[in-house]
Amino acid sequence: MRFIQEFRSSELAKGLISRIHQKSKTQARFMEFCGGHTVTIFRYGIRQVLPKTLEMLSGPGCPVCVTANVDLDKAIALAQIPDVIITTFGDMLKVPGSHSSLQEVNASGADIRMVYSTMDALNLAEENPTKSVVFIGIGFETTAPIIAASILQAEERRIRNYYILSMHKLCPPVIRAILESGEVKLHGLICPGHVSAIIGSHPWEFIARDYGISCVISGFEPIDVLQCVDMLVAQIESGQSKVEIAYRRGVHPEGNQQALKLMKQVFEPCPAQWRGIGEVPDSSLKLKKEYQHFDAELAFDIDPGPTYEPVGCICGDILRGVKTPLDCSLFGKDCTPQYPIGPCMVSSEGSCSAYYLYGEGFEG
Amino acid sequence: MCLAIPALIKLIEDKEAEAEIGGITRRISLWLTPEAKVGDYVLVHTGYAINILDEEEAKETLRLLLEIAELAEEQS
Amino acid sequence: MLAHGSGGKLAHELVESSFLKALANPLLAKLDDSAVFNFSGRLAFTTDSYVVSPIFFPGGDIGKLAVCGTVNDLAMSGAKPLYLSLSFIIEEGLPQGELSQVVDSIQKAAQEAGVEIVTGDTKVVHRGSADKLFINTAGVGIIPEGVDISGNNARSGDKVILSGAIGDHGIAVLSRREGLSFSTQLESDCAPLGGLVADMLAASSNIHSLRDPTRGGLATTLNELAKQSRVSIRIEEEKVLVRDEVLAACEMLGFDPLYVANEGKLVAIVPPEDTDKVLKVMRENHYGKEAAIIGEVRAEHPGRVVMKTCLGSSRIIDMLVGDILPRIC
Fold first, then answer.
1. Which chain B residues touch C247 with a CB distance below 8 Å?
2. Over the stretch C126-159, which tens digit does the pLDDT of each residue have?
3. Is residue C328 within 8 angstroms of chain B, CB to CB?
């Protein structure tokens, strides 16, 4: 068992595809919340193999895309403070804030290091005791416990020059906000597999219960996504709405208790600005009082200046599932992966980038 | 989007482990999965094991999917 | 350690001790301001700069890369590579031992490729003005009679041959990058392909296009060919060989292997009637053992590259934009 190739089998795919075609009678609209699912769906051309009865929408599950300019500007301002080393996942480097991006300020002298893990950032802090190492904490519930663990590790290793800029986002609250707005009518939700590996399946139950939407937690291989769609179709055709787990090898209903414990030990919920969605209560995490000495926002005097949003960009509407990239007048003309205007084009898991790169709308 | 990949634990030292991912090796942290053992497959996100993969569940899923595939084959 | 501005006698000693001995050949030994030689026939002439970081990586170093890269650029126009120039820009503080190691690799690679380093230059710059070592090269080669290879020549119906597994170089280099470090037995595929191309040309004088998928990977090379020849290219995902280690590293960092660099692979566009002959000689060559047909050229939708996925659906393959960056959170 390698847990990857087995779930890319064309034989298994054929079986699922034919079953979905047989079963699906009712017109239904599904949203994949997670950008990882968006990538799988486009990379394997999954929309093309589904029956016409099913409409797929991409959701706001790309941490880079939903980060508001006001937060990006803070990271960019921090990078320009002398003796600060910014450590970040590669995802954030190219994203334009109001005036600049991390990559641009790096080119003009700011010390920005791309890392794979907070483990690497902690080592860097240890190796550079005269500098301040700030980790840009983006990501959902999957990543937040890791950042929490890094803070506890810093304490244990007595690393005093490690800070985080917390821009974490929580998934269930933003889905509630989108559904509450009533702008988009959904019948099924493909729930994020790795977020659920941490939080379990229970936090999604309100979606099935309060909004009558079928929910299935999916893994990220093409077979996983097809299996998830098959299970959603089964629920729809039998008039059910409940939370099921298709990704059983990776997700337990109760989630990862140790991870949740660390997250609660270090962080507490706070409101957050989401791009295109606005302020959502309890949808982010800030450091608890006893860990505030790790908070970059408190440790440094950050002046990001005034915030600007790009003119004409409809990333916000796209993130809410109200519009698709093809509705945007900038898409593919003024806004391309080479010269991106909005974050959904910058991030390779953003809807605009996926539409552009994988040629959505093209008939093979 | 929380990229996480399956990795096999080869060696555990305190709260860290050597893990193998299809022929590459990397040090990972077990802070979130203290119960992980050598020989377990874990899901690794940004260098941390976020869960232990359930091999039995994976086999069961594949068995189920194979049945679906065989059924579809018969019908066509 | 090499210090900046050590001109005159010191520079002379550096050239003597590091380069002349290792790279000995009559043209270089003259130490005139330029190399002088006779030439007849059609000439291929290329230049490139090498700034790889780190300068040593599994399966090679910046020296081997500079020779192979230049030789391969010549070979991809069907030329037999002959002479190279090398210019070293050295950051002060580079240990003499590391430089010697690079020069040694250059010598080995040049010998294997059957080329001579006939002229060169060395500059030592202030710390921070370069990253350890940069190498600029130029190369010349002779194109045999009757050979007409160009990115413009792909025709509808032609087959697309790939000489082996993709992504080895990019991942091998990445495994040594600060902040991403992981360990692997995987080595860069860095290799001179002049011999492979000579074998292919001996088997068929009708090869339409050759290109080495370096920076930007296979996806970018196929797009260049499709755009230049105003054709479309259709490939099949299951035909493109990717090693386990490359796949694993790509999964870990969120990369697509189609965009990862190669330094010892080539793509050949060959008319269908010559495909078997070409494939046969490629597989007999050490650098083409795993050669396979991965797709074909079509007339419709000029400029487009399409890949059939393992699900039987199709998707467009675009060029690489900028650098590939990990996307993980």
1. 22
2. 999 999 999 999 999 999 999 999 999 999 999 9
3. yes
Distance CA C249, CA C236 (A): 22
DSSP string, A183-211: -S--SEEEEEHHHHHHH-SGGGHHHHHHH
Report if residue A363 sits inside a domain: no
When CB atoms are compared, the residue of C256, C311, C325 closest to A46 is C311
Closest C-alpha to C296, from C151, C154, C153: C154
Q: Which amino acid is residue A77, in one-letter code?
A: A
Which residue range forms the structural domain that includes residue A342? 315-358
Per-residue pLDDT tens over the stretch A147-172: 999 999 999 999 999 999 999 999 99
What pLDDT was estimated at residue A364?
Answer: 44
Left, alpha or beta for C13 (phi > 0: left; psi -120 to 50: alpha)?
alpha
According to the model, what pLDDT value does residue A360 have?
A: 65
Q: What is the pLDDT of residue C38?
A: 86
Contact A91 C328 (CB under 8 A): yes
Could you tell me the two tokens for B71? 């059924």
**Above 60 in pLDDT, residue C6?**
no
Return the DSSP state at C171: H
Q: How many C-beta neighbours within 10 Å does residue A129 have?
A: 10
Verdict on whether the full-model pTM lies above 0.90: yes
Same domain, A168 and A75: yes
Could you state, in order of their start, the residue ranges of all structural domains in chain B? Answer: 5-75
Spatial separation of the C-alpha atoms in residues B41 and B21, rounded to whole Å: 10
| A358/C contact by beta carbon, under 8 A | yes
H/E stretch holding C215 reads: none
ipTM reported for the complex, 2 dp: 0.96
List of domains in chain C: 8-143 (3.30.1330.10), 159-316 (3.90.650.10)
Q: Out of A43, A116, A226, whose CB is closest to C315?
A: A43
Looking at residue C1, its pLDDT comes to: 66
For residue B56, the distance in angstroms to the closest alpha carbon of chain C comes to 23
C-alpha angle C113-C114-C115 in degrees, rounded to nearest 5? 95
Report pLDDT for C11. Answer: 63
Output the CA torsion sign for C248, C254, C259, C263.
negative
Q: Give pLDDT, residue C7.
A: 53
Q: Given this structure, which CATH class describes domain B5-75?
A: mainly beta
Instruction: Kindly report, residue by residue over A113-129, the tens digit of the pLDDT.
Output: 999 999 999 999 999 99
